[in-house]
Amino acid sequence: MAAGKRKHAGEKESVDRDPSRKFKKAGINLSSPSKTPSSVIMEDADLDFPRGGGRVLSREEEAEARAEAEAEFEREESSGRKGKGNLRKKGLRGSLTNVQDDLGFLSGDGITGKLPRFANRITLKNISPRMKLWGIVVEVNKKDLAISLPGGLRGFVRAEQTTDMLAASEIKDSEGCMLSSIFHVGQLVACFVVQVDDEKDGKGNKRIWLSLRLSLLYKGLTLDAVQDGMVLNAQVKSMEDHGYIIYFGVSSVTGFLPRNQNDNQLTAGQFIQCCVKSIDKDRAVLYVDSDPGVVAKHVVKDLKGLSIDLLVPGMMVNARVTSVLDNGIMLSFLTYFTGTVDMFHLENAFQSGTWKDNYAQNKKVIARILFVDPSTRAVGLTLNKFLVDNIAPPAYVKTGEIYENSQILRVDKGLGLLLEIPSSPSPSPAYVNTFDASDKTLKLEKNFKEGDNVRVRILGMKHLEGLAIGTLKASAFEGPIFTHSDVKPGMLVKAKVISVGNFDALVQLSSGIKVLCPLRHMSELDIAKPPKKFKVGAELLFRVLGCKHKKITVTYKKSLVKSKLNVVSSYADATEGLLTHGWICKIEKHGCFVRFYNGVQGFAPRSELGLVPGIEADSVFHVGQVVKCRITSIASSRRINLSFITSSTRAPNNDTVKVGCIVSGVVTSLTPTAVIVNLKDGHMKGTIFNEHLADHEGHVTLLRSLLKPGYEFDQLLALDYEGANLILSAKHSLVSSANEIPSDLSQIHPLTSLFGYICNIIESGCFVRFLGRLTGFAPKNMATDRMVDNLSDAFFVGQAVNCHILKVNSEAKRIKLSLKQSLCASPGISYVQGYFLEEDKLAGMQISNVKDLDVNWLKDFRIGSLVEGEIQEIKELGAVIGLKNHRDIVGFLAHKQSGGANLEVGSVVNALVLDIAKVDGIVDLSLKPELVHSASGENKKKRHRSASTDLELHQVVNAVVEMVKENYLVLSVPEYNNAIGFASITDYNIQKLPHKLFEYGQSVIATVGEVPSSESSGRLLLFLNSFTDGLKNSNSKRAKKNTRYTLGSLVEAEVIEIKPLELLLKFGYSLHGRIHISEVFDNGECMENPFAKFSVGQLLNARVVAIPGHSGKGTKGHSWELSIKPSVMAFIGSTENFTTHVEEQFNFSAGRSVTGYVVKVDPEWVWLTVSRSVMANMYILNSSSEPIELENFQHRYSVGQAVSGHILDINEEKKLLQLAAYPSFDFDIVKAHETDSQKPRHAVQQYRQGDIVVGRIKKILPAVGGVLVQIGPHLFGRVHYTELVDDWLPLPLCGYQEGQFVKCKILEMGHSSEGPLHVDLSLRASITTNQHDQSLVSCSKRYEKIDDIHPGMNIQGYVKNITKKGCFISLSKVMDARILLCNLSDDFIDNPEKEFPVGKLLHAKVLSVEPSLKRIEATLKIGETETIKSLHVGDIITGKIRRVESFGLFIAIDESNKVGLCHISKLSDGHIDNIEQIYKTGDTVSAKILKIDEERQRISLGMKKSYLEDGGSIDRNVDVEADRKDDHQNGASSIDNPFLELQHSEDIADGGPEILAQPVKNTSILPLQVSLEESEDSDVDNPEIVNKDDANNNGQFNKKDRRAKKKAEEEKELEISASEERHLQNDIPMTEDEFEKLVRSSPNSSFVWINYMAFMLRLADIKKARDIAERALNTINIREEGEKFNVWVAYLNLENEYGNPPEVAVKEVFQRALQYCDPKKLYLALLGVYERTKQQNPAEELLERMTKKFKQSCKVWLRRIQNFLMNNKDETKLIVNRALLSLPRKKHIKFISQTALLEFKSGQPDRGRSLLESILREYPKRTDLWSIYLDQEIRLGDTEVIRALFERVTCLSLPPKKMKFLFKKYLEYEKAHGDEETMEHVKRRALEYVESSLA
User: Fold this and answer.
1) Angstrom distances, CA of residue 328 to CA of 383, 822, 1614
2) Most exposed residue of 147, 176, 980, 1473, measured as fewest CB within 10 angstroms of its CB?
3) How far apart are CA 454 and CA 1423, in angstroms?
4) What is the DSSP letter of 1593?
5) Ranked by mean pLDDT, which of 299-313, 571-585, 1317-1331, 1518-1532 comes out on top?
6) Residues 868-892 pLDDT 10s
């Protein structure tokens, strides 16, 4: 085809770019699971070449066309030079456009005739998918690579497109480091164009997406195409011992690279170039060499049959110059190919104007392939000396640099200038485009000459060419900002707003650079949306915040923009004492983080914020606030300390309290977090934070509640200064050890113990602070003796702790601590002593705060004294005793302290005081005789005193536990007259940790710590020796003690932790062991939770069953194995015998049942522990025999759960068992292969033919391939297409999906010596559930033998194959039938493949059977004339109801394909009111043939009993199998479909919704066979009509009403007769062709279109049904709004049932329909769809939107109330209130009355009464409302209420006509429900009204 005529030179196009042909540049399909679209299409209005590589013209025609076009161009060009007037204004631009167009044209290698003028060059206009390009990596980002391509283009490679060897998930997990480990900047790579986006980026360029996947680059590579010496791109697949496995992108060829010690280490995934050294064709392995010197010098040889697909960018070839072009040269290479070299890719980068002289014809050169376009066969080459040497050209210049005296080497007319830039270390070439040569339009050849020197500024770089892009414009040298590198943090810039978003604004500098202003930096205030100043086009002044990776952010905060202070843009700018502005980026409790410019950050501690004591920072400051701060110090290179107190000098006060001093103070005020005090010794203020009020966490809250201004703290420790404020502590532990707490690092020495307090807790440890800012750190492993997951569970901030110094680093000023209780136990009684002192303080504060409290009550009670009291109440834990003379004090006597006395209410007792809870006012008493006697007698005080004073400090005594309190024990010392003492059971460091358990009566050993005195609150204080046992023994002693434990030793151990699978114990001297979960009970015994009876701290006896090695590691970790099995604990014998007894014997056998405990649950395996050394696993499919249980596989098991199973497989070497939960296998043991005799295994045959097993669908095979089901870890079976379901369904696969668990039966197994080869399965419910239902078996029968088939029988099957001669249908997995083309249909079939697709269900009749050949012939033809002739008038037939209509039934006659009509008048001898309640679709009925119209093929039936009796009796027990067969045969022709049903008739008509109607049931009524006028004026919308209807229902008809009703019935009967006649004349279409004829005849009938859709749904062709809906919407006339609306509603029903997913599909259709339909009607229709299908959540969401959108619609509000009432929700009051606020006042009466009706009928009648009463109070004369009220009460039937209401309404003053109606209604009610007396009463009332009105 020749090119068309050109009008002028600017419109010149080559022949190959024929403007009459528009092509699309097609993309490619990628197998990668990346986000790249599988199909990429780019459209271009001015395409340069046709896609696809095909040729429309022959080579000769193409040559002629090209010559003609060139000649015509020359003529037009010469004439254009003569007539310059036409091109005067745009001559330069037009000629440049022509040149650029020609430069962008790609010519292939098959050109004949005249040569092209220009060399091939890649541009944005001609780049397309499938091209192969050479490029240089210029950026390596986390998620992609940036590649510089030929011509200065830039492409991008997503991480998932860099390799074939990793999955997308693996790349996503490692992409942050993967790309940087494989690629580096400057690396040469071969790329494949995947996609060219139509959308343009910010620079106006299209985005090019590339791929580096070798499978795309070497697609089609075979081993035969590879030759020795060929250079290939490859990736390292893996590292082996002697070398590397190499990947080339094709699975059929692999490579091996030997390892060389001198080479650099390669990593997996790394890209390399390698040279083929040798080829092993037998193993398809290439042996390669990756030496860069060898690779760079190798040239590709001439190969026979080398296709263009094997040409890869980067290949080096020998070439020969064939011609010189205007902008380059043409080369021929590899015999068959030609390519071009652009002049920027010639050997010399500094080519002058005479460069063409250097390339004579036939000159030999070495070149590398630059790009390949397979579609046009265009090849680009390069002669660049760097690229030929396989290295990237160097770049000695940077963007933005200015170079003086740059020399012009060449002037390209209309294109640009080539310059030589004096860069260092060597000159660089640069090119200036004609548009960048000057700010004005000029001709280059007149204004620039070769050899001139010019000033140039660098714009960018073409990395692959090594060519800089420059500009000579004078404007480019003006202004401070030209590129991103010119922008500096902190500088002021003016910028124009170009776009404003919700969270930021994009502004543009004068140089065109775009920067971002975040929302937080648009204003000084904390704003939620951009301020009004930020309008598009507004020019504002900003300050640059930061510059990073060309991402620049600015601020508009006035404080920052107008700041005159120095800017801190780097850590080097920060100097001590510098004042500067910053903004708060984060607020913590201990200070604020402040951000400066360019990411510099500092921290201002709380003491430097200038806060009032007790005020939190977040209440004063907010994030984003600009603050003026002073740099106080620079701790490190990236740590700046700040102060908001800008005054740098603070005058020291001589009266300043030193840190560590003890002071006193008076409370002045209280804040939520602290107490403010005034020091008594000076004028300073101090702060006591809440956590520093007391040592014990429980006392802090109580003390805080009792504190009031004026309270005096007598002892406070000065901890630190926060600015001028003193931080104090009232903790007794810190105050008492104030002299020992260090304030300087020099005061701390290793291996000493000191008191401090926890100031912070992090995941890795705790920070402990001493005085001032001196802080140490306790790592997590040194914080507690037992490892805890979260340190916050063991410590709290502010907790006083005793710490052990481990290490002091003076240089780093770091202190390493330990908080382990074993190293840091507090000395003696300090903890319990402080506890009682704090309690005394609290008790004193309580007494002073409570006026009525007895002040002296504590003096009347002493520990150990006797008191008298009366028992007031006996409770579960003890007796409550009232104490004499102390009504406010309560005595408590625990049952264990009763001493066996009989306690009775009212009895008086003398009891011993055990303990006094001073804060709670409770005295603990005891009646134990030994205690009471010790305190009785005349000299009891003296005796008691002597008993306690006889004890000496540090004396060890035996004591008995009398009471166990939360923090201490109450003990008695029997040896010393039962003196009462107190001992702590916890300590400072373990307050929150579990402590040792003690019991009443337990004997303990304690040491006297303090005798009764004022410091001990009059108590004897002891400390338990168990706290210090572990500390007194040295390591050597401990080692000697440990040696006494041997195998079989019986030990007493303490439970320290309970895990799901083991008990962790501590015994001996810090020895740790464990009891495995299997060591609790003997074999055969199993409990679900064996550790349930144990608790932490419990002591138990166990026996050692395994000891650790002698490496000395036994004391660490849990290496001692213990057991508490009854058989082990009861063992008696020697150590040798015990070893034999406990040694685990691996004597398991296949089939045996074992029990284990869950260790781990994987997605497909559950791992169990059977014993200490034996593990087991269970596969998901072996864990249950029910599919539903497998869906929740991981949730069924939890760690520690007991699971039983039968052994399937045994691995003795690994001591691993494979189990199955149910024994569905043979127990015969099968030995493993003899070749594996060293690894003894035993297994059982798990599966046998006939077994019913559970499987998982692995893959759904295409066409009729069936389903692949996994039934074992490595065993799969196939389900034939006919074995999927029992019934013959059109789509048997619709209920299955991949990954679904199913129950299947093994039909057949093929075995070999290596195990099962194939397994045939069935998913049919009749054989997988062992059911014996004969109907199910009959309908699901599959013919396995040809003897079961005989001519004339009906068969069913799926199309297996279709050819031009006919098709084969599959009857079962072993039998097929053939249907010839002539037997496929009675009509001509043009396209059998389309009419009978593979997988379609067919019902056929057998024509012939040839058993010897196993051949079955069938037919699909149906003889209709014979069928109707076989029927006779008077025959009694049976059939199924096809459809129920208001005028009769359509019945499908059995054993035929005919449907008859039984009119409603022929149904019964009596009258039928509602035909739909009596008959349902699918019912089997009997009828008599009354009339047959053979001409019109019509049958009239009768079902009256008289007809059937006359015709004789018939058998009504229809054969079930026949019924099922009829269902299948007739189901396809039925057009009924409940899914296309319209919910209510109001959805179609213009009237309101039928609110009071119940939802329509899913019946067989067709969507549009409901009168469209029925709901036009429903009784809901018109209360008067409701009133009339109700009156009619009560028998209130006058003569006129009766006549009207009779006339209406007659008209209805005529309408039914007419409708019947129409249906008889136009029978229901039975085929697709009949429907097509019908829609052509009635194109605007929605009834026909919807029936057509329903017909397709019956055939399970969802797609076709959608297509019909779309056709209907396009076909129906635009004026037929109602008809179109009906189709839209049907479409919504279809998508609601069959959409994928339905929510999205319905939403899309609904949004489309809104553009054409009345929105309100459409919303109501969609609501009806949701209500019909009982989708409550979507219905509620839709109603919420409707009430907002149509808030003035009474109908919408009523529908919402009806929905709430239907779903039993009690929120109607709120909805009514909302509705009344939204609705116009004129609709209030209607809305309230209808709401009341709904409440009466569906809700609560009381609410309905309230609504009616409220409206009748305003409108008492509305008889219609009274009538509604009365009717609803009559319906409810409460006689008293009804009569009271009638009495009310008949007392009203209404017109006579209305009163007559009311009295008449009243009288009718009494006639129906009353008696003579009540009727007389009504008559009297009526007479009274008449008399009063006449008077």
Assistant:
1) 11, 86, 92
2) 1473
3) 97
4) H
5) 571-585
6) 888 888 888 899 988 877 777 889 9
